[in-house]
Design a protein that fits this description.
By secondary structure, this protein is of the alpha+beta class. It contains three helices and nine strands.
Length: about 200
Amino acid sequence: MAIIEVAPRPSGLSARQRWSHYFALIYAVIAIFVGLNLRDSALNATIPYVNSSAGIRAYYPLNWLLDVSGSYVFRVRDMSQRGFKTTIEVDVQPVTINTTARNLLDSLTLNRSRTLSAYNVLATDPYTLSGDRQATAMTYVFVASETNPFLESLPIVVEGLDVITIQSGQAIIITFLSDERSYEENLPIFQRFLDDLEF
């Protein structure tokens, strides 16, 4: 015959169990922190672009497509977006000492109103670039539609922002274009681009 002794169950957790819980919580917090840092690094990763003849150095988003074949210095586009592709474009134009930012904005408005459907200027404001350089910003909208007549789609309202500054006898025109529905979401990308732009 065996004797079975029934002891009362110990109340609370042992020291080892408490430390296990603390370590699990600390590990979870560290894992979340590292995950967020890796996500931000991937989303904000950039590639340098240098054009010595134009005197421009910029950093554009990692997965965007670079194009230097147009009349501009360079253009990058987010080809992963559906519909209108978010675009950043940099152009340099020679100007005279009497040319003002207002002259350039009027010229851009005149040219675009002939080529872009429903082009409308929303606002023109002073803008400060990095290094306290003064510039002028113009926001506008237009309607983009599919150029291929066999691909029917609804027109897309595009919102644009031009930042223009004049220095050393040349005008630097930095353009940002995005689908109006995602404009506010994509604008921080353009702000980071402007902060890192050197000319």
